[in-house]
């Protein structure tokens, strides 16, 4: 069991007061997209376009994600009592591909409560869960509801996508627009299965 400092527990508690359900997050994004906006402090045409594309991705994934009978049984057998607190923003392509999967898993077990917060509104929390020094999202923080300890985290990408990104960066130094397209193609082919595999390791 991870021992979480009082400092981090206070930050998490503060962020939880600002959190919303997945359904409320989806409604927020849809309303912003209708206004030509995105979540976050910075508003640009590009971020609005990404948000619109991501809204469509999430709508599609909400309807099409399939879990194996084995995965469903494993999720339903979980007897812990946790909150999955996820940092995200509407413009993030990785979040659009994984948030519906996270929600689908959480829906299968009443012992898993999913809460969503926006990265730009929760800087202190984000700074406690950086990825290689960066504010990469989505970031899922698993919190034991009894002890309030952080018992695991996940993100910003499923493990296979993370390897793809790391390998490409090692070879080319930075991610190109072409690679980002290839990554979205991988997500579409994977259909959330690698994310499900990763999440099963959290429970």
From TrEMBL:
Gene3D superfamilies registered for this protein in UniProt: Glutaredoxin
SUPFAM superfamilies per UniProt: Thioredoxin-like
One GO MF term: isomerase activity
InterPro entries, alphabetized: Thioredoxin-like_sf
Key words of the record: Isomerase
Pfam families for this protein: Thioredoxin_9 (PF14595)
Record's protein name: Thiol-disulfide isomerase/thioredoxin
Organism field: Kordia periserrulae
């Amino acid at each position: 069991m991870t021992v979480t400092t009082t400092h981090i527990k206070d930050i998490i508690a503060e962020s939880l007061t600002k959190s919303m359900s997945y359904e409320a997050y989806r409604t927020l994004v849809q309303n912003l997209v209708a206004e030509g906006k995105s979540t976050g402090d910075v508003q640009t045409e590009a971020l609005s376009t990404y948000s619109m594309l991501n809204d469509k991705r999430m709508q599609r994934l909400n309807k099409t994600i399939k879990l194996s009978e084995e995965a469903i049984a494993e999720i339903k057998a979980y007897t812990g009592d946790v909150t999955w607190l996820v940092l995200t923003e509407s413009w993030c392509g990785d979040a659009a591909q994984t948030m519906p999967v996270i929600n689908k898993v959480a829906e299968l077990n009443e012992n898993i409560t999913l809460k969503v917060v926006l990265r730009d509104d929760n800087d202190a929390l984000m700074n406690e869960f950086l990825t290689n020094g960066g504010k990469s999202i989505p970031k899922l923080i698993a919190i034991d509801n009894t002890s309030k300890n952080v018992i695991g985290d996940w993100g910003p990408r499923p493990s296979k996508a993370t390897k793809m990104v790391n390998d490409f960066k090692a070879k080319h130094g930075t991610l190109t627009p072409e690679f980002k397209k290839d990554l979205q193609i991988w997500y579409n082919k994977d259909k959330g299965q690698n994310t499900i595999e990763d999440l099963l390791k959290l429970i």
